[in-house]
Amino acid sequence: MNEPGRIVEKIVKLFPQERFSSDPFKILICTILSQRTRDENTESACEKLFARYKDVFDLAKASPIDLYELIKKSGMYRQKAQRIVEVAKILVEKYGGKVPDKLEELLRLPGVGRKTANIVLYQGFGRPAIAVDTHVHRISNRLGLVKTKRPDETEEQLKKVIPKRLWGPMNGSMVEFGRRICLPVRPRCENCPLNQECNYFLQKRR
Protein backbone atom coordinates (compact mmCIF):
# COMPACT_ATOMS: atom_id res chain seq x y z
CA MET A 1 0.00 0.00 0.00
CA ASN A 2 1.28 3.48 -0.81
CA GLU A 3 2.34 5.79 2.04
CA PRO A 4 -0.84 7.98 2.07
CA GLY A 5 -2.96 4.84 2.00
CA ARG A 6 -1.08 3.35 4.93
CA ILE A 7 -1.52 6.55 6.97
CA VAL A 8 -5.24 6.76 6.24
CA GLU A 9 -5.69 3.09 7.11
CA LYS A 10 -4.05 3.78 10.47
CA ILE A 11 -6.50 6.67 11.12
CA VAL A 12 -9.46 4.46 10.18
CA LYS A 13 -8.28 1.75 12.59
CA LEU A 14 -7.53 4.18 15.43
CA PHE A 15 -10.80 6.14 15.06
CA PRO A 16 -13.39 3.68 13.69
CA GLN A 17 -16.81 5.12 12.85
CA GLU A 18 -20.04 3.26 12.18
CA ARG A 19 -22.65 4.43 9.71
CA PHE A 20 -25.39 6.15 11.72
CA SER A 21 -28.12 4.98 9.32
CA SER A 22 -28.62 2.93 6.16
CA ASP A 23 -31.60 5.00 4.98
CA PRO A 24 -30.40 7.26 2.12
CA PHE A 25 -33.17 9.82 2.79
CA LYS A 26 -32.38 10.21 6.50
CA ILE A 27 -28.67 10.41 5.69
CA LEU A 28 -29.34 13.12 3.09
CA ILE A 29 -31.54 15.24 5.34
CA CYS A 30 -29.32 14.88 8.42
CA THR A 31 -26.25 15.82 6.38
CA ILE A 32 -28.01 18.96 5.14
CA LEU A 33 -28.83 19.75 8.78
CA SER A 34 -25.21 19.17 9.77
CA GLN A 35 -23.91 22.03 7.64
CA ARG A 36 -22.17 24.69 9.77
CA THR A 37 -23.18 23.26 13.12
CA ARG A 38 -21.93 20.88 15.80
CA ASP A 39 -22.69 17.17 15.75
CA GLU A 40 -24.73 17.22 18.93
CA ASN A 41 -26.97 19.93 17.42
CA THR A 42 -27.41 17.89 14.25
CA GLU A 43 -28.34 14.78 16.20
CA SER A 44 -30.94 16.67 18.24
CA ALA A 45 -32.48 18.28 15.14
CA CYS A 46 -32.58 14.99 13.23
CA GLU A 47 -34.17 13.15 16.10
CA LYS A 48 -36.91 15.75 16.52
CA LEU A 49 -37.54 16.05 12.79
CA PHE A 50 -37.94 12.33 12.14
CA ALA A 51 -40.01 11.83 15.27
CA ARG A 52 -42.58 14.14 13.64
CA TYR A 53 -42.09 13.30 9.95
CA LYS A 54 -41.59 9.61 9.27
CA ASP A 55 -40.50 9.68 5.64
CA VAL A 56 -40.03 11.68 2.45
CA PHE A 57 -43.75 11.73 1.67
CA ASP A 58 -44.59 13.29 5.05
CA LEU A 59 -41.91 15.95 4.63
CA ALA A 60 -42.99 16.75 1.09
CA LYS A 61 -46.39 17.82 2.46
CA ALA A 62 -44.91 20.05 5.16
CA SER A 63 -44.48 23.80 5.13
CA PRO A 64 -40.97 25.06 5.97
CA ILE A 65 -42.34 27.03 8.92
CA ASP A 66 -43.57 23.76 10.47
CA LEU A 67 -39.95 22.61 10.72
CA TYR A 68 -38.49 25.70 12.41
CA GLU A 69 -38.84 24.64 16.05
CA LEU A 70 -37.85 21.04 15.30
CA ILE A 71 -34.54 21.91 13.63
CA LYS A 72 -33.79 25.27 15.30
CA LYS A 73 -30.81 23.85 17.18
CA SER A 74 -29.00 23.08 13.91
CA GLY A 75 -28.67 26.80 13.09
CA MET A 76 -29.67 28.59 9.86
CA TYR A 77 -32.96 26.78 10.43
CA ARG A 78 -35.12 28.87 8.09
CA GLN A 79 -32.84 28.23 5.15
CA LYS A 80 -32.42 24.56 6.03
CA ALA A 81 -36.18 24.07 6.46
CA GLN A 82 -36.79 25.55 3.02
CA ARG A 83 -34.17 23.28 1.46
CA ILE A 84 -35.39 20.15 3.21
CA VAL A 85 -38.98 20.61 2.05
CA GLU A 86 -37.81 21.43 -1.47
CA VAL A 87 -35.64 18.32 -1.55
CA ALA A 88 -38.49 16.13 -0.29
CA LYS A 89 -40.87 17.49 -2.95
CA ILE A 90 -38.32 16.93 -5.74
CA LEU A 91 -37.66 13.38 -4.57
CA VAL A 92 -41.39 12.59 -4.52
CA GLU A 93 -42.21 14.29 -7.83
CA LYS A 94 -39.13 13.26 -9.83
CA TYR A 95 -37.87 10.06 -8.22
CA GLY A 96 -40.96 8.45 -6.69
CA GLY A 97 -39.70 9.15 -3.18
CA LYS A 98 -36.30 7.53 -3.72
CA VAL A 99 -32.94 9.25 -3.28
CA PRO A 100 -30.90 9.10 -6.51
CA ASP A 101 -27.67 7.12 -6.33
CA LYS A 102 -25.75 9.16 -8.90
CA LEU A 103 -23.43 12.03 -7.90
CA GLU A 104 -24.62 14.32 -10.71
CA GLU A 105 -28.28 13.93 -9.73
CA LEU A 106 -27.60 14.45 -6.03
CA LEU A 107 -25.70 17.66 -6.80
CA ARG A 108 -28.81 19.07 -8.49
CA LEU A 109 -30.78 18.94 -5.24
CA PRO A 110 -31.04 22.19 -3.22
CA GLY A 111 -28.41 22.50 -0.50
CA VAL A 112 -26.44 19.48 -1.69
CA GLY A 113 -22.74 19.95 -2.42
CA ARG A 114 -20.04 17.39 -3.08
CA LYS A 115 -19.47 16.58 0.60
CA THR A 116 -23.15 15.86 1.25
CA ALA A 117 -23.53 13.90 -2.00
CA ASN A 118 -20.50 11.74 -1.25
CA ILE A 119 -21.68 11.00 2.29
CA VAL A 120 -25.02 9.83 0.86
CA LEU A 121 -23.31 7.68 -1.76
CA TYR A 122 -21.14 5.92 0.81
CA GLN A 123 -23.42 5.69 3.83
CA GLY A 124 -26.69 5.26 1.94
CA PHE A 125 -25.58 3.11 -0.99
CA GLY A 126 -22.19 1.67 0.00
CA ARG A 127 -20.46 3.33 -2.96
CA PRO A 128 -16.78 4.34 -2.78
CA ALA A 129 -16.80 8.13 -2.30
CA ILE A 130 -14.56 10.62 -0.50
CA ALA A 131 -16.45 13.25 1.47
CA VAL A 132 -14.14 16.21 2.10
CA ASP A 133 -15.16 18.53 4.93
CA THR A 134 -12.99 20.99 6.86
CA HIS A 135 -11.47 18.16 8.94
CA VAL A 136 -10.49 16.01 5.96
CA HIS A 137 -9.11 19.03 4.08
CA ARG A 138 -7.08 20.28 7.06
CA ILE A 139 -5.73 16.90 8.18
CA SER A 140 -4.83 15.73 4.68
CA ASN A 141 -2.76 18.86 4.14
CA ARG A 142 -1.15 18.80 7.58
CA LEU A 143 -0.09 15.18 7.20
CA GLY A 144 1.22 15.86 3.71
CA LEU A 145 -1.14 13.45 1.96
CA VAL A 146 -2.00 16.30 -0.42
CA LYS A 147 -0.99 19.89 -1.01
CA THR A 148 -4.19 21.72 -1.92
CA LYS A 149 -6.06 24.97 -1.35
CA ARG A 150 -9.67 23.88 -1.84
CA PRO A 151 -11.75 20.87 -0.71
CA ASP A 152 -12.57 19.87 -4.30
CA GLU A 153 -8.85 19.72 -5.07
CA THR A 154 -8.32 17.64 -1.93
CA GLU A 155 -10.98 15.15 -3.05
CA GLU A 156 -9.38 14.72 -6.47
CA GLN A 157 -5.86 14.34 -5.07
CA LEU A 158 -6.93 11.85 -2.40
CA LYS A 159 -8.63 9.71 -5.04
CA LYS A 160 -5.25 9.32 -6.73
CA VAL A 161 -3.34 8.18 -3.64
CA ILE A 162 -5.88 6.40 -1.36
CA PRO A 163 -7.20 2.87 -2.06
CA LYS A 164 -10.93 2.84 -2.88
CA ARG A 165 -11.79 0.64 0.10
CA LEU A 166 -10.74 3.51 2.40
CA TRP A 167 -12.58 6.31 0.59
CA GLY A 168 -15.84 5.96 2.47
CA PRO A 169 -14.54 5.20 5.98
CA MET A 170 -11.91 7.95 6.00
CA ASN A 171 -14.37 10.84 6.44
CA GLY A 172 -15.89 9.69 9.73
CA SER A 173 -12.51 8.62 11.10
CA MET A 174 -10.79 11.87 10.12
CA VAL A 175 -13.63 13.89 11.63
CA GLU A 176 -13.17 12.08 14.94
CA PHE A 177 -9.38 12.44 14.71
CA GLY A 178 -9.86 16.16 13.99
CA ARG A 179 -12.13 16.64 16.99
CA ARG A 180 -9.97 14.80 19.47
CA ILE A 181 -6.39 15.46 18.37
CA CYS A 182 -5.81 17.34 15.10
CA LEU A 183 -7.78 20.41 16.19
CA PRO A 184 -8.10 23.44 13.90
CA VAL A 185 -6.34 25.62 16.48
CA ARG A 186 -3.68 24.29 18.88
CA PRO A 187 -3.64 20.69 17.67
CA ARG A 188 -2.52 18.15 20.27
CA CYS A 189 0.56 17.15 18.30
CA GLU A 190 2.49 15.73 21.25
CA ASN A 191 -0.27 13.19 21.88
CA CYS A 192 -0.81 12.33 18.22
CA PRO A 193 -0.11 8.72 17.18
CA LEU A 194 0.84 10.00 13.73
CA ASN A 195 3.17 12.83 14.71
CA GLN A 196 6.29 11.10 13.36
CA GLU A 197 4.62 10.87 9.94
CA CYS A 198 3.14 14.36 9.92
CA ASN A 199 4.70 17.17 7.88
CA TYR A 200 3.11 19.83 10.10
CA PHE A 201 4.56 18.37 13.33
CA LEU A 202 8.00 17.64 11.92
CA GLN A 203 8.32 21.10 10.41
CA LYS A 204 7.10 22.71 13.62
CA ARG A 205 9.84 20.97 15.61
CA ARG A 206 12.67 22.25 13.41
UniProtKB/TrEMBL annotation:
Single GO BP term: base-excision repair, AP site formation
Cofactor names: [4Fe-4S] cluster
KW DNA damage (keyword) present: yes
Short name of any one Pfam family annotated for the protein: HHH
Xref: PROSITE patterns: ENDONUCLEASE_III_1, ENDONUCLEASE_III_2
EC number: 4.2.99.18
Free-text comment on the cofactor: Binds 1 [4Fe-4S] cluster.
Cited SMART domains: ENDO3c (SM00478), FES (SM00525)
Reaction it catalyzes: 2'-deoxyribonucleotide-(2'-deoxyribose 5'-phosphate)-2'-deoxyribonucleotide-DNA = a 3'-end 2'-deoxyribonucleotide-(2,3-dehydro-2,3-deoxyribose 5'-phosphate)-DNA + a 5'-end 5'-phospho-2'-deoxyribonucleoside-DNA + H(+)
Sorted UniProt keywords: 4Fe-4S, DNA damage, DNA repair, DNA-binding, Endonuclease, Glycosidase, Hydrolase, Iron, Iron-sulfur, Lyase, Metal-binding, Nuclease
MF GO annotations: 4 iron, 4 sulfur cluster binding; class I DNA-(apurinic or apyrimidinic site) endonuclease activity; DNA binding; DNA N-glycosylase activity; metal ion binding
Segment forming the signal sequence: none
Domain HhH-GPD stretches: 33-180
Residues that bind [4Fe-4S] cluster: 182, 189, 192, 198
Coiled coil: none
UniProt function note: DNA repair enzyme that has both DNA N-glycosylase activity and AP-lyase activity. The DNA N-glycosylase activity releases various damaged pyrimidines from DNA by cleaving the N-glycosidic bond, leaving an AP (apurinic/apyrimidinic) site. The AP-lyase activity cleaves the phosphodiester bond 3' to the AP site by a beta-elimination, leaving a 3'-terminal unsaturated sugar and a product with a terminal 5'-phosphate.
UniProt-listed PANTHER family: A/G-SPECIFIC ADENINE GLYCOSYLASE/ENDONUCLEASE III (PTHR10359), ENDONUCLEASE III (PTHR10359:SF18)
Family: Belongs to the Nth/MutY family.
NCBIfam families: nth
UniProt-listed HAMAP family: Nth (MF_00942)
Protein name according to UniProt: Endonuclease III
Species classification: Bacteria, Thermotogati, Thermotogota, Thermotogae, Thermotogales
